[in-house]
Amino acid sequence: MASITLDDVTKEFGDGGDAVVAVDDVSLDIEDGEFVVFVGPSGSGKSTLMRMVAGLETQTDGDVYIGDQIVNQLGPRARDIAMVFQNYALYPNMTVEENMSFGLKMSTELSADEIEATVTETAEMMGIESLLDNTPGELSGGQQQRVALGRAIVRDPNVFLMDEPLSNLDAKLRTTMRTEINRLQSDLGVTTLYVTHDQTEAMTMGDRLVVLNYGELQQVGTPLACFYRPANRFVAGFIGSPS
Ligand code: ADP
Ligand code: MG
């Protein structure tokens, strides 16, 4: 488990007159075990921020810390972070079991038996143990998302990054999965950064809310503080309005 610190982190794409400042001088301390939800309009830099924490994108300026270690030079694998995206990105030709064990085979010293036991245990936790021999194409959207979560959890990462993980699911499933993600997160105590554009997720899931606009931090606070004591007009309009 680990805290995360962003210290004056900036990301520009392109240069000269075409430059886009996707993330603009963001500083943020996230505590070990905290669940932080990131919201903001499309293009406000949420995904770019996640990708920099994951090591999939290198910042133009500033430092990213995991625990007290600067990880600027570390690639994704060395950061021990698990990501879940909206489009699942499961391997279509592998079974659920193979999808879940693939990362473990690549990154641990566990024996084949130990990997199988870990995958089975995680599959039971996610309610997908009966699907282990199926391929992703045979599963519903909700089941695929459970597999994606299971695949992230099975590696026992320090940090979860979730970028709109539920946005492809119907409303009823979203409600179920919201509860389930919160339950898993508190059971596992994993530091979690969660991106959403869903108002209900923003108001109910996290310990704190981070509001972004044009790559700049607008407010960091509890959902209630952002709702009742918005730091500026943008936050008042964004948090108060239905998405
Ligand atoms: P969000 O996830 O909040 O919708 P993004 O982080 O995807 O926002 O994008 C922030 C800004 O950075 C947008 O203006 C987007 O067009 C730009 N951007 C993101 N990725 C790239 C890229 N690989 N190349 C150029 N511009 C990018
Ligand atoms: Mg995005």
Automatic annotation (TrEMBL):
Key word Transport present: yes
The keyword Hydrolase is annotated on this UniProt entry: no
Main location: membrane
Topology of this chain in the membrane: Peripheral membrane protein
ABC transporter domain span: 4-239
Enzyme Commission number(s) of this protein: 7.5.2.13
Reactions accelerated catalytically: D-xylose(out) + ATP + H2O = D-xylose(in) + ADP + phosphate + H(+); L-arabinose(out) + ATP + H2O = L-arabinose(in) + ADP + phosphate + H(+)
Gene Ontology BP, a term: carbohydrate transport
GO cellular component: ATP-binding cassette (ABC) transporter complex, substrate-binding subunit-containing
Alphabetic keyword roster: ATP-binding, Cell membrane, Membrane, Nucleotide-binding, Translocase, Transport
GO molecular function: ABC-type transporter activity; ATP binding; ATP hydrolysis activity
Locations listed in the record: Cell membrane
Similarity comment text for this entry: Belongs to the ABC transporter superfamily. Carbohydrate uptake transporter-1 (CUT1) (TC 3.A.1.1) family.
Subunit structure comment from the entry: The complex is composed of two ATP-binding proteins (XacJ and XacK), two transmembrane proteins (XacH and XacI) and a solute-binding protein (XacG).
Role, per record: Part of the ABC transporter complex XacGHIJK involved in the uptake of xylose and arabinose. Responsible for energy coupling to the transport system.
Name this polypeptide is given: ABC-type D-xylose/L-arabinose transporter
Residues of the full protein shown: 1 to 243 of 389
